[in-house]
């Protein structure tokens, strides 16, 4: 199963995505592309792909940090933008989030060392889950009646939605289209924010599983320190992807691939339990509406 997920020809995959980017820019009569560069592996890979498709002066990256952003994130975003010679606009969205009331949902971390903030986030996350359902699964259910999870959804999701607003605000002034940075694993499990980081004009890496994102990043020369750090949405201190999902990406990707290609029976050879398979199935089902346009009633006239 692991072999099935490996990219047969990374160069061909790269060329396919690069041609797709060029086609989208031409199709939408755009002057260039804007995207959010968080310093994480997904947006860094998108940056490297965009640079292969477009001149550096046709690409604008936004780094939109806030109170809870890890200090390392800006450093990594700058490393990528410097390596590719693309403009990086740094915007602090703390004031916007504070004005909305986002930070009133969580105690201020002033003068509290980050390691204690991280411990607080992890403990709170674990307190909201039980043996039957993870906190993330409950969040896909709208909080499942848990007021703390509902507040957490608003707290986390608003950050990405503000970033989407800024991408379109700056992009439309230049007639730049927005490139999304969500991967296939995130899309299929619902590990993204509807009208947040999913808001884009095109999604260059949305058909790559997370493990394939890592592989292609290595192939294209994304800095090693970015590839090797634990993937994180960087929305709350200490909250990493695999902790939130309560499963390593390697397992998630194998399950998703097996479900997509009717190879579920082969998962037994990968030491994957039926409970884990059902968990991913549930995430996929609960998040299905997030991958669709809003429903509407059909009018017969």
Summarize this structure as a short list of keywords or feature phrases.
301 residues, alpha/beta, Rossmann fold, four-stranded parallel beta sheet, 14 helices, NAD+ synthase activity, NAD/GMP_synthase, NAD+ synthase (glutamine-hydrolyzing) activity, NAD
Layout of strands and helices, then pairs:
Elements: H1 2-5, H2 10-27, E1 32-36, H3 41-53, E2 59-65, H4 71-84, E3 87-92, H5 94-100, H6 114-127, H7 135-140, H8 147-174, E4 176-178, H9 184-189, H10 210-220, H11 224-228, H12 241-245, H13 249-260, H14 274-286
Helix pairs in contact: 2-3, 3-4, 3-10, 13-14
The strand count comes to: 4
- Widest β-sheet, arrangement of strands: 3-2-1-4
State the shape: globular
How many discrete domains?
1
Pathway: Cofactor biosynthesis; NAD(+) biosynthesis; NAD(+) from deamido-NAD(+) (ammonia route): step 1/1
Subunit structure: Homodimer.
Pfam family, one: NAD_synthase
InterPro entries: NAD/GMP_synthase, NAD_synthase, NH(3)-dep_NAD(+)_synth, Rossmann-like_a/b/a_fold
Protein model, in words:
Strands 3-2-1-4 form a 4-stranded parallel β-sheet, with helices on both faces. The protein is built from 14 helices and 4 strands. α3 (41-53) crosses α10. It has 301 residues and is of the alpha/beta class. Helix content is 52%, strand content 7%. The mean pLDDT is 96. It is globular and about 50 Å long. It has a single domain (2-289), classed as 3-Layer(aba) Sandwich (Rossmann fold), CATH 3.40.50.620. One of its GO terms (cellular component) is cytoplasm. Deamido-NAD(+) binds at residues 161, 194, 201.
């Amino acid at each position: 199963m692991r072999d099935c997920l490996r990219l047969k020809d990374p160069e061909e995959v790269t060329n396919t995505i690069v041609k797709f980017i060029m086609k989208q820019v031409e199709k939408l009569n755009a002057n260039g592309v804007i995207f959010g560069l968080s310093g994480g592996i997904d947006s860094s890979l998108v940056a490297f792909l965009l640079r292969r498709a477009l001149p550096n002066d046709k690409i604008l990256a936004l780094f939109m940090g806030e109170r809870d952003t890890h200090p390392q994130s800006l450093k990594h975003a700058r490393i990528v933008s410097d390596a590719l010679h693309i403009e990086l606009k740094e915007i602090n969205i703390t004031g916007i989030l504070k004005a909305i009331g986002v930070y009133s949902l969580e105690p201020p971390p002033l003068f509290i060392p980050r390691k204690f903030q991280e411990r607080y986030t992890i403990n709170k996350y674990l307190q909201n889950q039980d043996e039957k359902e993870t906190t993330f699964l409950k969040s896909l259910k709208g909080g499942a009646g848990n007021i703390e999870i509902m507040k957490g959804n608003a707290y986390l999701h608003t950050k990405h939605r503000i970033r989407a607003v800024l991408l379109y605000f700056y992009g439309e002034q230049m007639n730049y289209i927005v490139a999304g940075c969500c991967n296939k694993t995130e899309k299929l499990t619902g590990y993204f924010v509807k009208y947040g980081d999913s808001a884009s004009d095109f999604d260059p890496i949305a058909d790559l599983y997370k493990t394939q994102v890592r592989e292609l990043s290595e192939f294209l020369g994304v800095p090693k320190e970015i590839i090797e750090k634990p993937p994180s949405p960087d929305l709350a201190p200490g909250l990493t992807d695999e902790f939130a999902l309560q499963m390593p990406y390697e397992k998630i990707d194998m399950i998703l691939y097996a479900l997509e290609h009717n190879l579920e029976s082969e998962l037994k050879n990968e030491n994957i339990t039926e409970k884990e398979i059902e968990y991913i199935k549930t995430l996929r089902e609960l998040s299905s509406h997030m991958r669709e346009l809003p429903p509407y009633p059909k009018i017969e006239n």
